[in-house]
Amino acid sequence: MNLFDSVDTLKGIGPKTAETLRKFGIKTVRDFFYNLPKDYDNYEAPTSISQVRPGKVVIRGKIDSLSTRRARKRNLSITEGVIRDNTGAIKVVWFNQNYRVRQFSPEKEYYFTGNFELKNGRYSLISPSAAEVADIDPQTGLSPIYVAHGGLKSHDFRRLVANSREKFSEIPDLLPTVKSGTRKNALFYAHFPNSEKTIQGARDYLAYEELFELILAAKLNRQENEKLKAAEIPFDKAKIQEFVASLPFKLTNAQRLAAWEIFQDMEKGTPMNRLLQGDVGSGKTMVAALAAYEAILQGHQVAILAPTAILATQHYEGLNRTLEKFGVKTALLTGATKKKSELKKEIARGKIDLVIGTHALLTDDTEFSNLALVVIDEQHRFGVEQRQKLLLKSPSGLAPHLLAMTATPIPRSLQLTVFGDLDVSILNELPKGRQPITTKILTELETKETLYPQIQGTIQAGQQVYWICKAIDDDPRTETTSVKSRCTKLKNTFPRAKVEFLHGRMKPAEKDEIMEKFSRGEIQILVSTTVVEVGVDVPNATLMTIENAESYGLAQLHQLRGRVGRGNKASFCYLLTSGDMRPSRRLKELEKSTDGFYLAEVDLKLRGPGEIYGALQHGALDLRIASLSDTKLIRRAQTDVVQFLKNPDNMVKYKELMSGISKYQQLTTLN
Ligand code: ADP
Ligand code: MG
Questions:
Q1: Which residue's alpha carbon is at the smallest distance from atom 9 of ligand 1?
Q2: CB atoms within 10 A of CB 406
């Protein structure tokens, strides 16, 4: 058996099954073994039907009288039957699982596990899992649950895997260094568990394998990067001091340190690959400006990429104001830019020093004459491919230095694994004089009494308000208030205030206009979707309401909240929850803390990395099993990878490993 043989070389997998499997990404024997159960049913200690009580139960019996009917509600089919043992009978119901009618034979015995509960006036076993008694080890009662793929249901996978049971012993190890067991055992016990303990052992082993791959990929990315050449940009102390002295404020120590780290990176002939993490409002843009000025002083060009046109425009205005007097030529390039082709020609001829734009800047036909530094602001994926593109844009053949900035702090564990190829600078200090943000959870019912008077007071004090809504338009199916109807409501409540709305479907020019008016204080209440999420800077805005707060992730809420508290006035953030559900842990944490790093750790634990860093679509975070909060295992893998890399022969020897990690190398760096 070869792990890379096609999946249909396995016993019992014919062309039709193979086709379904392939459609779901299970192409090889290896893929098949690694299609791990998502969970396990435990059929241990069944209850006799006469003893069954409401709640989760395990039952052993035969099933008959199966039939399926359509419910009155569209898109719902109901499959019902009767389960009997020698003490009695109960009704069983499945929803939208028509195949259940064909799954069972009346003379065989099955285990069922699910909730026994009252439904439509009658107690039934609701949507239980089921497994044939003959297939389950009576000692353990454990049965794997597989994700259904097309026509292949969990029990089909159990059958297919059982057909290949003896093949597991032929699986070679993937890694050289695992101390706790073998891959063949880990995979075997994942599919054929004989106790909870063996399941855990299998998971630990496979999690370690996964982390090893991830960390190895990150380290190899770093090595690849170090082979590239970049412009050497010497530090110009006098000019930088002059620039810093021109600023209306003193840099924070954290800003100084970060800038210093960046200057040192840029002096080297290898491309910088640095992530600047800093909580909202910590002044990342100024650090980027220092780096940009330093490169421009040496006659290079710099590109700054922002995630939205609004933000690009704001950066452009701020940076142009700061840098213009030092002779820096800055240009804005977004979808709305007029005379684009002329501007592009100027960029290509090196007439523009600093180009600020959205991501499209890299993908379209923009050419640079001498691009030496790329700054990516907030949430941007920047992969090997993009770096490759930039290389092509650089006639000198030099790779640009890269500075990525994020306000979503990346927990330590992710830094070691997924982001292991980046150097990190941290702004852990807010500029002096910042006032704290007070955060409060409110139910919608409290709006009139508590929130409106606050808003009134804020407006009267000459300050401004953000009101964040989930949807742009009303949707009769949900109860969320849309941007548009909220805007109307607020206009009625605050007739003397100027209330406007903003959302992502507006034309860029319209958005810019609204944003500019808000910046100039001509709008008092801005009702908006999350387009204001990243980076927008209006220090006079001191109150934010986030409607349907429960529908956002913690990191995103923290980001949104960061739009206020940017000036020297006390700020407030109200989290409106709909309905009368108790506030979630997420919202309570947000109420308690304004520390982005702390919140990121909590978010990682509560939701897992896939949700938070969702922009990394290449699957690196779809870890099958490893948890990126398992710091101990991460450290062990880390040490072993370092050991592994010490012997260059390993790269040749461990072929399966090396080909497997290419999927992680695709993505490299940052979201
Ligand atoms: P973020 O890190 O969220 O991107 P910004 O770069 O937008 O933060 O900075 C937030 C605000 O703080 C801006 O108005 C900026 O001019 C200001 N700022 C930056 N550095 C300092 C500083 N050292 N002292 C005072 N204000 C600063
Ligand atoms: Mg910013």
A1: 283
A2: 23
